[in-house]
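Researcher: Please predict.
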Amino acid sequence: MKRNFLFAWYQTPRGKLLKELEADYLKRSITVSCQQIILQIGGLGWEDEFIDCTLYKNYTVLDAKGLGCAEARKIQAKAYSLPLQSDSVDMIIIPHLLEFDAQRFQTMREVERVLKPEGLLVVLNFNPWSLWVRYQFLWDKKMADSWGGHFISRSRILDWLKLLNFEVTVSSEFNLDSVSSKQGKLIADSHSFFSTAYAIKAIKRRYNIIPLTPVKNGSTRLALINSLTPSARIKKHE
């Protein structure tokens, strides 16, 4: 499936609403300091709606076609072969890329490689069971190659993260059918099987194996109570 499906979806009324919800979600998810390195894999073009690149100068957008807002630092490369050193990034954001990536699991391996231990990962994906996403897909089939092999369920993403030693901390959903407004902000119900999209936050864990030292076989030494010699006992009684 080409990523054009994503950009076409964002132009629809429901897509604009989802875009606003995701922008607010990402803005609240970026909790690292301005000095730390944040990598976004897959450009959107509206990164300035959830990140101030003049403040976060280490914010980098990596995209195969060089997509991304003008203020962000960009790297043009493939997601499954990141030109970055291992354990060099503090936070990685993957907004709607894995479902359009033919080598998505290799991309996840690369994400695990470049992310620092205890680094934060945020993934945004469409919900494959969403009726509206299916309708948009069927309405314009030329936007995609096939339906079944691309959209990824949340349970599968959770399995991948567990396999790669990530600990999932938050799992959220964007249900556009139950959006409400509170103090000028849009809030979506996070409990729906047919929600439009979902988001997952996870932390990279690194478990170090502690080697067990072998116990040396030796003669057992016991300390006996009142182990006095007979002569000493006699003198004690006298």
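Model: Strands lie at 38-41, 59-63, 73-76, 89-95, 115-126, 166-182, 185-189, 197-204.
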